[in-house]
Amino acid sequence: MKRSTRLLAAAMLIALVAAGCGKEKKNESTEPESFAFTIYPGSRYLAQLTDLWKQARKVFRPNDDVPPIAIYDTDAPLDKVAEFYAQSYGYNKVAPDATNNLSSAKPPAYYRTGDLAKDVAGIVPVAQKLNLKLDPSKAVGTYHAAEIDPKPNRPRVTIQRPYFDASTSQTVDRTLIMMTQ
Predict the structure, then answer these.
(1) 66-114 per-position pLDDT tens digit
(2) H-helix or E-strand containing 164?
(3) What percent of the chain has pLDDT over 70?
């Protein structure tokens, strides 16, 4: 009887392990397998600016791998692009600012503003390390932006209009879409 009890216990253990592994495979198949960028319809990929950001990342963390990043721009208004990403991520709306009407929780999607000259002044030391001829005097004015929090296997999205193109030292009146892991 001892032997039959052991065999029965072993068979039950094998059945439990097989059942557990079957559930793991089902869960894995419902999740996206790789990191995915959602591209705004009609936007154009900015290869030179994307490569420049990757090089800048290496300046800050020379021993780390560069995470996935993609930069696009479009003629579409900032609000339309922000709403597109908020909806595609399942967020209800884009909050007017990061305070979310003085709530204690930061919203997953919100608008903000900034000053091009101040932002560009912050990248001058990095541009020098990259031997990039940058003319910060051409970064003039304020911008409106939206921040969209990441989701599993989906990037953080920063949307801004206008933006400063560091590769050409020009302020561009288009909507920039930067996606980073």
Answers:
(1) 889 999 999 999 999 999 999 999 998 999 998 866 767 889 999 999 9
(2) strand 163-165
(3) 79
- Residue bearing tokens 């929780």: 105
| Number of residues in the chain | 181
pLDDT at 178: 96
Mean pLDDT of the chain: 83
CA distance 119 to 45: 22
What pLDDT shows up at residue 105?
A: 82
Query: Which whole-number Å values give the CA distances from 161 to 3, 126, 128, 132, 136, in the listed order?
Result: 75, 22, 25, 23, 17
Strand partners, 45: 72
Mean pLDDT of 116-121: 94
Question: What are the DSSP calls for 2-51, one per residue?
Answer: HHHHHHHHHHHHHHHHHHHHHHHHHHHHHS-SS--PPPPTT-EE-HHHHH
Cα within 13 Å of Cα(29), Cβ side: 6
Structure tokens at 84: 């597109």
Quick one: angle between helices 47-60 and 116-129, nearest 10?
A: 70
Run of H or E residues at 74: strand 69-74
